[in-house]
Amino acid sequence: MGIIGAILYIVLFAYNYLNAIKLDNKNNKENDVYLVISLYYQTFFLAYSMSGNPLYNPVSILIYFIVLIFIQTSTKKEK
Fold this sequence. Notes:
Number of strands: 0
Largest sheet: none
Radius of gyration: 13 Å
Structural class: mainly alpha
Distance between the termini: 36 Å
Mean pLDDT: 84
Order of helices and strands: HHH
């Protein structure tokens, strides 16, 4: 993967994480529960990435994609 691939992963993970924090700070009451769940799971996923490899665990990566969908649907509702 190398340095370029690692930077790509870090940028994508950071973008999604910071986007979730920004949406949660806007205090949208309808999606507040989903955004909090998304932030909690993203924090777990990133912490687990430091000790394990959740990218190859199908359950972990599937749930991660689901919480990313929470963020994307919340972003579209904001526009």
